[in-house]
Every structure is written in structure tokens, then in C-alpha cells.
Amino acid sequence: MRHRMQSYGGLSSIMEVLILILSMVLVRLSIAWWILPLLAQRKLRKKGFGGPTPSFPLGNIVEMKMKRDVSEASSLKQLITHDFHSRVFPYFAEWQKLHGKVFIYWLGTEPFLYIADPEFLKKMSVMAQGKNWGKPSVFKLDRKPMFGNGLLMTEGDEWVQRRHVITPAFSPSSLKEMTNIMVESTKRMLTKWVDLTSSGHAEVDVECEITATSGQIIAQSSFGISPPECTKVLEKLRALQVALFKSDRCVGVPYNNFMYPKHTLEAKRLGNEIDDLVMSFIMKRRKSVDTGNESRDLLGVLIQESHAEDNKRQRKKLATRELVDECKTFVFGGHETTALALTWTLFLLALYPERQKQLREEIEEVVGDKEFEVAMLAGLKKMGMVMNEVLRLYSPAPNVQRQARGDICVNDVMIPDGTNIWIDVVSMHHDPTLWGDDVNEFKPERFDGDSQGGCKHKMGFLPFGFGGRMCIGRNLMMMEYKIVLSLILSRFSFSLSPNYCHSPTIMLSLRPACGLPLIMQPL
Ligand code: HEM
User: Fold this and answer.
1) Distance (Å, rounded) from C-alpha 61 to C-alpha 54?
2) At what angle do helices 313-351 and 474-491 cross, to 10 degrees?
3) Ligand 1: distance of its center to the CA of 328 in Å?
4) pLDDT 10s digits, 238-268
5) 0.90 surpassed by complex ipTM
């Protein structure tokens, strides 16, 4: 009996210790996840930054989801309008009315400083050294299967070094070598469209077609991956994008991965499969380096760099991982955004057929019957204006994110180290105080002789981001855009299909939710 009592006594003291440890862990977690961020938010509030009231542990996620559901349901029968900020970001549109263009909102236990004011952004970037801008750790972790630690996600010295190594792969001479691949891939797509239309299928989902072609272009021109091989990677990347961005996974809520195990495991599995495929391409290319048959495309540049430094085993391992992450980053970042810019262009040209005619005349004048040459692209001025206007109205990259690495002082307010920052590009591109009352009209002329399109603030037009982290692939994009669009316009005229449903939506990028069915008419 005494023995039993002793063991009960031992058990209860173990329980007490466990409860104590658990309470200490809970206290530490609430301090780290809630009290400290809340104190930082209070400080910012005292300095005049408002924002919606968060609740623990979801922050403002519930409110955001509710507003989005309402907006999606009410926009099902939406007429075609280019004024869609309140549809894709209904919560930001409403909070802006209450709190202005700079405020704080919460994703789970992560506070975000929302910015739709270019002047505030300018002051902030002047004060922050390039290296003091990081990428939100919460997104880096969440998007790891897709981008790993590729250029888009690296920070500090590592980013400086990586950007320095990669930049030559986008030099004018390297881009020139990509022309043939762009022309050939587009011609293959157009031959397919001719076959489709001549067999009675006039309706083509051009978003799907152009995304596949753009994927082939980047995979082949930057990594030497041939079309059949790259299809697998592209399909898996698309599935990964859906797993990561098409579900409400409560990013920012501690341990959200455990709340959505199915999506988390699916993303991890797809990420690993893509890694294996990419690794097999890299191994093949490494062999050609060993035999001296290496080309100077992006993968060639990266492989040579990793060889130059891989005298220590540790470094070699790291370099191989980095190579895989860069390949994923560039294959995804390099095709999705460009394809969407072209898709939204075709949508607008279908809507305004007189613009198709104008561009066709320009192509006839500049290119005529000749083979495409890079030197011709600068002559396609009207097309350049159309491109800028599309990137303004339907910016494929709808937001830019940062995390302060170090305190940043703006207007005498200290934005503390670690603050997440969300820059709402769609809002700035649709702001009548920056662009005028015709802000929601498609008017390429606003870019005639003015690279800022008449925007009243030079940081109000940010399709490729800003500062040192501006898009590294923008020249490649502009070249691909003009080549693909010229070839399409020379072979087809097109109009919107009655099946088109106007529903811009965000799935990391800004895309048409139901694709872009067009009625194609061969010329
Ligand atoms: C319409 C086409 C494109 C748009 C709208 C676009 C947009 C952007 C934006 C807004 C950023 C800045 C992100 C940030 O600051 O966090 C960015 C960065 C980047 N883009 Fe693009 N992009 C396009 C095409 C491309 C292409 C064709 C490539 C590759 C071939 C590419 C690769 C990258 C990479 C690697 C970065 C990260 C750069 C860095 O952090 O140093 N993008 N892009």
C-alpha cells in the first residue's frame, strides 16, 4: 500500500514538472508569437499607423477570407471592367478606406505593414540599404518547395554574390542567342492553332497554350531542356502552385502545416519530384562540362561557377542544392509572368480590335517578310506602349514583399527590425490620384515618350519591382513578349469567345481564373 502511494507521489511530481515545462513553453511561445509583435504594433500605432484589430492566433485571416468569399460570389456575373482591385484584394480595398494607404494587418501572428503609397515607399527605400531588405521568413518557409533558396528568396551577401554571378546570363549577347528558340517555339504553337482552326475548332484557350510555350522557351534557352522533357517539370510546377496557393492554408499561423497536412505533404512530394527531375538535367550538363562541351546559357554559367568553387566537398554539396533552387526559380519565374503578360495583352487586344490593327501595321512596317532580328524590336514602339499599359492594368506580379532586416526610420517613425512589408502594386497601378480619372481605361498612349506613363510618382509604376532587387529577367521578358506577340498578330486575328468569364484572380500571380478562350481567325 505504502509502495503504491509512493509511486502515486512520484507520478504526480512528474506530472507537476511536465505541467511546469508545458506552461513555460506556452508562455515563451505567446511572448514570441504574440506579445512581442503586439508591442511592436502598439509602438507603430502610437506613431499613427492604424489597421484592423487582430485576434489570436489567426490575426485578420478570418476577416480576409470572409471578404474574399463575398467578393468572389458577387463577381461571378461581373461585367468586363479593368477596375478590379476591390475584387482581388477586397480586404485591402476596405481597410484602405478606413486606415489610409499605409496600415498594419496580421497574417496569423505575423504583423504586416501594408503600403499602397509610393511616397512612403520611396522614403522607406531611401532609408533602407539594399541589404536591409529581406524576404519575409514566413513566406520563404512556406514557398520552399517551389523556390528553395533561389535568387528570389536569398538575402544579404549571399544575394549580392548570386545576383553578380547570374547577371551575365541576361546580357544582350546571351539574349540574342535565345531569339531562334523563341521564334521556333512560337511557330510550333501557331502551327497547332492553324491545325485546330482548320479542323473546325476556332476556340483556343490561349492562356494554357502560351504558358506551355513560354515554359518551353525558358527551359530550352536557359537550361537546354528540350520540350518533351520540360513538360513534366512544368506540369509538376503548376500542380505545386495549385497546392501552395489555391487553398487557405493560414500562412502566418504557428504550425499551420499541421492544420493542413494533405496540402503540406502534397507540396513537399511535388517539390521533391521536381528536385529529382531538375537534378537529372544538371547531372547531364555537368558531364558535358567535363567533356568541354559547355554552352554559356544560364545553367552553363551556374555550373561553371559551382565548379570554380567546389574544391571542398561541403561547398560542392551546397552548390548542387543552389543549382536546383535556381533552376526551379528561373523556370517558374521566367515563364509564368511572361505568359500572363501576353495572355492579358491578347485579352485586351481582343476587346479593342482597332489596337490589333494598329500593331499589325507596325509589325508589317518594322518586320515585314524578313526573319526576326533582335535589332528590329526597338522599332516596335506602339507594341512597347501596349506592353507597359498591360503591365500597369493587369500586372502579373500583383504585390512585392519585404522584411526589414534592421530598423528603418520613415517620417520619424522607426519601423522595427523584422517587420514584414506588403506592397500592393495592383492598388498603386489603379490609383486615380496617381494616374488620373482615366486610370481604369486601356490607353497605351499614356506611355508615348514617357516610361512612367504619366504617373505622378516615379514609384507608382512597379511592374518589375524596385531598387536593386528589380526583376533580373525583364529584358528577356520584353524580347520574348515582342517576338511572340508579333508572330501571333501576323498569323491570326482574334476576338473574345462568348465562353470567356472575366475573373482576374490571384494565385501568386494575377491570372484569368477561367483561362482565356479566344476565337482565332487565321489571316
Ligand atoms: C512580365 C514578366 C515579369 C514580371 C511582371 C516580373 C516581375 C518581377 C518582380 C515584381 C520582381 C521583384 C520581386 C521582389 O522584389 O520581391 C521580380 C524579380 C525576379 N524575377 Fe521577374 N518578372 C517577369 C519576368 C521574369 C523573367 C522572364 C525571369 C527569368 C528569366 C524572371 C526572374 C526573376 C527573378 C529571378 C527575380 C528575383 C530577382 C532578385 O531578387 O534579385 N522574371 N520579377
Assistant:
1) 9
2) 40
3) 13
4) 999 888 887 677 888 888 877 778 888 898 9
5) yes
- CA 422/CA 403 separation, integer angstroms: 9
Supply the pTM of this predicted model: 0.91
- Give CA–CA dist 111/33, Å, rounded: 10
DSSP, residue by residue, 344-358: HHHHHHHH-HHHHHH
Cis check for the bond before 444: say yes or no (omega within 30 of 0). Answer: no
| CA-nearest residue, atom 29 of ligand 1 | 334
Q: What dihedral angle (degrees, nearest 10) is formed by the CA atoms of 188, 191, 196, 202?
A: 110
- In this structure, what are the phi and psi dihedrals at residue 107, rounded to the nearest 5 degrees? -100, 105
Report the C-alpha gap between 453 and 95 in whole angstroms.
28
pLDDT tens readout for residues 454-500 = 999 999 999 999 988 999 999 999 999 999 999 999 999 999 999 99
| Residue 471 assigned ligand-binding role | yes
Grid coordinates of 132 = 536591409
Helix (H, G, I), strand (E, B) or coil at 120: helix
Contact status, residue 189 vs residue 215, Cβ threshold 8 Å = no
State if residue 465 touches ligand 1 by the CB under 6 angstroms criterion.
Answer: yes
Residue nearest (by alpha carbon) to ligand 1 atom 16: 400
Closest C-alpha to ligand 1, atom 9: 464
